[in-house]
Design goal:
This protein is an alpha/beta fold and 462 residues long. It is built from 17 helices and 17 strands. The longest helix is centred in the first third of the chain and has 25 residues.
Length: 462
């Protein structure tokens, strides 16, 4: 093949790749962040032979379209309802009452409450997790599920495909033999979900008797692996945040699990009534709302709420996250809050379990510190996900403050409006912050600065 023929072929492949990207983006709007869109286009221009198949496998970000009808029905509410109205405008269900909220102070109490709740199920158990490890904690969970399935309880276990590939789960055939059912969400090995390999179900919940008045929801940031609970002889347990509650609120999580289960198994979507998107008959500082984020939502709900809350904050913002790689919009909102006198506290591990994320966070940490934010580095591994604003809103669940959680993953958070419980989450934050040391920003060297910039180009995939 002559050079002219090769250049012609290369140009044709590049043009077809760009055309495919444009047609796919127009037909299925992905609402990408500018940095992600530019990264994909540059990848296609420079290496079209690799970029095109990579885009076909990893390029999908959204599978839900905006609900114009829902947005048209929204009416302005009083200023104190801003968080509720923001979530309603984003298509999230209205606040519901809940009871018996219990925050787990450590991994041991979280393990005890989880196994006790699973072991006490009488009708149904629905578990969704990113990681179910083949270790003592994972084996204990599966054994409990098997015991309840043999007792006649309907047991469904939903595991993320990528999480299962990276962390081999316990042998699940014994759960099936006991009468339970298992499903893999978006398995990388299934061609039927082509284009969605990069979309991970990061939601973590256990629903016990979810359709009953005595039902219970166990959720938060813990995966079902020993390091999130008891640790190992050579390593201490990670610090994390999980909690449980009862009451009507758990119906929202039950409906979300049903949709995820049907998507993973190929069953028709559930026909049960969806959660109300109209204001509930609650006071403005009562109840809680589910905040689902991910490809099944038309908007980037968690990101939108965080940005809105940061701009509205007047007193304090308290954030806990293992990974801090925010986009420019969220970082600007936090920096401006700090500049106008809001106390911005960010708690994260001094060194996380992801070295690339630690390198990628450098620029954002320096920017926030220069704006007046206070950054605290916790000893050991902190895996909690929490945001508290002005003692009026607490957001807790599975989402990290990085681009993958905010724009790619399926995530589940709960927004609490009841002030007494918001203060409980803030007290948890202050307890975890106590042993942390203050971050001291340092100007990076040339090579470090270049490495941070290179990693940030692919930060949306971290």
């Amino acid at each position: 093949m002559t050079l002219l023929h090769w250049l012609t072929l290369h140009g044709l492949v590049t043009a077809l790749a760009i055309l495919y990207y444009a047609v796919q983006a127009h037909g299925e709007p992905q609402r990408r962040q500018p940095a992600a869109a530019i990264a994909w286009i540059l990848f296609i221009l420079l290496l079209p032979y690799l970029a095109l198949p990579a885009y076909m496998v990893f390029g999908t970000r959204k599978r839900a379209r905006p609900n114009a009808t829902l947005h048209a029905k929204m009416q302005p509410g009083p200023p104190e309802r801003w968080a509720i109205d923001t979530l309603l405008a984003l298509g999230q269900p209205a606040p519901e009452r809940y009871a018996n909220l219990a925050l787990h102070p450590d991994g041991e109490s979280a393990r005890h409450s989880l196994l006790a709740a699973l072991g006490g199920a009488q009708h149904t158990i629905d578990v969704c997790t990113f990681i179910l490890a083949r270790d003592p904690l994972g084996e204990a969970v599966v054994s409990t599920l098997c015991e309840r399935a043999q007792a006649g309880v309907r047991v469904r276990l939903l595991l993320d495909g990528m999480g299962s590939l990276m962390h081999r789960p316990p042998a699940l055939q014994r759960l099936r033999d006991a009468g339970g059912t298992c499903a893999i969400f978006s398995s990388p090995l299934r061609s039927s979900l082509k284009g969605r390999t990069n979309l991970r179900n990061h939601r973590k919940l256990a629903l016990i008797d979810g359709g009953e008045t005595t039902g219970r929801l166990w959720t938060g940031g813990r995966n079902l692996a020993s390091e999130y609970f008891d640790g190992a002889p050579e390593t201490p347990p990670w610090r994390d945040l999980s909690f449980e509650l009862t009451g009507p609120l758990i119906r929202q999580a039950s409906q979300l699990f049903e949709h995820d289960w049907c998507f993973a198994t190929g069953l028709p979507p559930p026909t049960t009534p969806t959660a109300s998107h109209h204001g509930a008959a609650l006071l403005d500082n009562e109840g809680a709302q589910q905040v689902a984020s991910g490809p099944d939502q038309a908007d980037d709900t968690v990101h939108a709420l965080l940005v809105t809350a940061a701009y509205r904050a007047r007193q304090r913002i308290a954030l806990a996250t293992p990974y801090f790689v925010p986009d420019a919009t969220l970082l600007m909102a936090l920096c401006l809050a700090a500049r106008r006198g809001v106390q911005v506290d960010l708690l994260l591990p001094a060194r996380s379990n992801h070295r690339l994320s630690d390198m990628a966070r450098g620029r954002a940490l320096r920017s926030l510190a220069q704006a007046g934010g206070q950054i605290w580095l916790a000893p050991g591994m902190l895996h909690a996900k929490l945001a508290v604003f002005d003692r009026s809103l607490a957001l807790a669940g599975s989402a990290n403050l990085d681009s993958r959680s905010l724009f790619l993953n399926y995530e589940l958070m709960l927004a609490f409006h009841q002030r007494s419980d918001v203060q409980r989450f803030e007290a948890w934050f202050d307890t975890e912050r106590a042993p942390a040391t203050a971050f001291q920003p340092q100007q990076p060297g040339l090579m470090r600065d270049m490495a941070e910039g290179l990693i940030l180009w692919t930060g949306f995939q971290l």
